[in-house]
Every structure is written in structure tokens, then in C-alpha cells.
């Protein structure tokens, strides 16, 4: 478990495999280990070097210098890319991580070969705003629901109807949700605020990096029409919707998601960043 001191924080990361590098940026409240169940082994088997890291907000960086903002997180990703000499590399962001990656593309496009924004959104729709408000209110109340309630709520929030109709699959998921300790703390609470980042569609129009926006068909948190809006906002971006998965699509349907990543990485044109910006 290497640690690099970058931007005034101790950034914990994992560096696995050999080949063209891929940096994976995770979502709200998640640690880098979420990628290691499916995406890290799948990408390393395909000949990639894969780097994962814990965003600021995750212990021990719950109150870091520079605060917990999308800009600061993008700066951490850029610093790690430079520290490990990965540039220009492929970058994947999930949920909040998709917003972080989008800011990286705007601030430091020369560091990124191509990018996948997975279960992302450039704005909150009305239902997304209501979900976020409810989540923040629950967190601020200090109420800790029973593990069984937390598990059922997670299954409804993160999984597809297809998975919930599969009795054995849903039992397995409920067991995972019930026994996995929730990641909490002031840093995670600060990450929740980052989902309310206004409408960034006009801002994304300045992105010049090759981008694939992936939406998950049954995602209630970041619905696929909002992922499609990202592709519509970024010149030349592609959009792909993956069926039968909810917000945790990369964990529900890992083979399909990994195949989409690898297909895009193989098709994305290698070009000089200066040419893309011209």
C-alpha cells in the first residue's frame, strides 16, 4: 500500500500490472478497493497498468489542506499521474469520480490520453436533487439505521430490477450491504456536497480529450439520460448505455463494463495533446 505526499496530503494508492496506464477515480464515500473486485483484474489481464487511489475525504484525509472540492480532487489525480510518470494515461471516473475526471480534462488535458465518465452527470435533475437532499438530511440527523434497513435501501438505490428479481443474487448483495461497514465521517459528508455542482454542460464544451460517457440503464441516482447529456456537451464524445444494471453497474455487470472500457481504449486515437487543443 504505497503512500505519496502530494498537495499536502498523504495519498494512498495501489499500482498493479504492466502496460498502458489507467487511473481509476471512485465515487462518493468509496475507497480505491471498490475497483479491485472486477475492474483492476480485468484491465490488468488485458495488458494495462492500473492505478487506484483514495480521494481526499477518505481517512486519513478527512480535513485536508485545500479542502474537499472537485478542483482539489482533480489536482490530486494530476499530481499522482505526474508522480508515477503515467502521462498521457487513460482515466476512468465513476459517479462523483466522473465529475473529478471532467475537471481534470479541463485543467490538465495534456495528462490524459482518453477518459471514461461512468454513471456521471453534468447537472442534477429534480429527482436527483431530492435524493441528494434526503441523503444529506439523513446523514446530518445522526440516525444510524439497522443494518438490514441499510442493506435494503442500498439494494433499491444501487441495483437493477433484474438483479433484485434473482433470489440468490439479491441475497448475496443484501449480505454484502449488511455486513460492509458504512464509510462515514466529516470527509464523506463533504463529498456529498460535491454532487450539487450546478449545471456544467457549457463548461464541458471546452473538453478536447476523447471521452466515452457510460450510463447504466436502471440507475436511479445518475440516470442514463444525464450521462447522455455529458456526451452531448463534449465535442466528439461517445455515449453508451449498458442494460440491466443500476448505479453499481460496474459491479453488477462487470464483464460488459470492462468490455466497453477496453473497446474504447483500443479505439481512442492517440494524439498529441497540443494537437487536440488546437
Explain the overall architecture.
By secondary structure, the chain is an alpha/beta fold. It contains 13 helices and 8 strands. The chain has helices at residues 39-45, 70-83, 96-107, 126-141, 147-158, 161-165, 167-179, 186-193, 201-204, 224-233, 249-252, 254-267, 273-277, and strands spanning 3-6, 9-16, 20-25, 48-53, 89-94, 112-118, 211-216, 238-242. Strands 1-2-4-3-5-6-7-8 form an 8-stranded mixed β-sheet, with helices on both faces. Helix 1 links the parallel strand 3 and strand 4. Helix 2 crosses helix 3 (96-107) and helix 5 (147-158) packs across helix 7. The longest helix is centred in the middle third of the chain and has 16 residues, at 126-141. The relative contact order is 0.15. The model is unreliable at 269-278 (pLDDT under 50).
Alpha-beta content class: alpha/beta
User: Based on DSSP secondary structure assignment, what is the total number of beta strands?
Assistant: 8
Number of helical stretches of at least 4 residues: 13
Order of helices and strands: EEEHEHEHEHHHHHHEHEHHH
Mean of residue pLDDT? 92
Strand order of the largest sheet: 1-2-4-3-5-6-7-8
Amino acid at each position: 500500500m504505497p503512500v505519496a505526499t502530494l498537495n499536502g496530503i498523504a495519498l494512498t494508492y495501489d499500482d498493479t500490472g504492466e502496460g498502458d496506464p489507467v487511473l481509476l477515480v471512485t465515487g462518493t464515500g468509496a475507497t480505491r478497493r471498490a475497483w479491485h473486485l472486477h475492474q483492476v483484474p480485468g484491465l490488468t489481464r488485458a495488458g494495462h497498468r492500473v492505478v487506484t487511489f483514495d480521494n481526499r475525504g477518505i481517512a486519513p484525509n478527512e480535513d485536508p489542506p485545500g479542502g474537499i472540492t472537485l478542483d482539489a480532487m482533480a489536482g490530486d489525480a494530476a499530481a499522482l499521474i505526474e508522480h508515477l510518470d503515467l502521462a498521457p494515461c487513460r482515466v476512468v471516473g465513476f459517479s462523483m469520480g466522473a465529475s473529478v475526471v471532467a475537471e481534470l480534462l479541463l485543467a490538465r488535458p495534456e495528462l490524459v490520453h482518453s477518459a471514461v465518465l461512468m454513471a456521471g452527470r453534468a447537472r442534477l435533475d429534480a429527482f436527483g436533487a431530492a435524493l441528494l437532499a434526503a441523503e444529506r438530511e439523513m446523514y446530518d440527523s445522526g440516525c444510524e439505521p439497522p443494518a438490514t434497513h441499510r442493506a435494503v435501501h442500498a439494494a433499491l438505490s444501487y441495483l437493477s430490477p433484474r438483479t433484485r428479481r434473482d433470489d440468490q443474487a439479491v441475497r448475496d448483495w443484501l449480505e454484502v450491504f449488511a455486513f460492509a461497514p458504512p464509510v462515514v465521517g466529516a470527509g464523506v459528508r463533504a463529498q456529498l456536497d460535491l454532487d450539487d455542482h450546478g449545471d456544467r454542460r457549457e463548461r464541458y464544451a471546452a473538453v478536447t480529450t476523447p471521452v466515452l460517457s457510460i450510463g447504466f440503464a436502471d440507475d436511479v441516482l445518475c440516470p442514463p439520460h444525464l450521462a447522455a447529456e455529458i456526451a452531448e456537451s463534449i465535442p466528439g464524445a461517445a455515449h453508451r448505455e449498458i442494460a440491466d444494471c443500476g448505479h453499481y453497474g460496474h459491479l453488477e455487470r462487470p464483464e460488459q463494463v470492462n468490455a466497453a472500457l477496453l473497446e474504447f481504449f483500443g479505439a481512442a486515437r492517440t494524439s498529441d495533446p497540443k494537437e487536440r487543443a488546437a
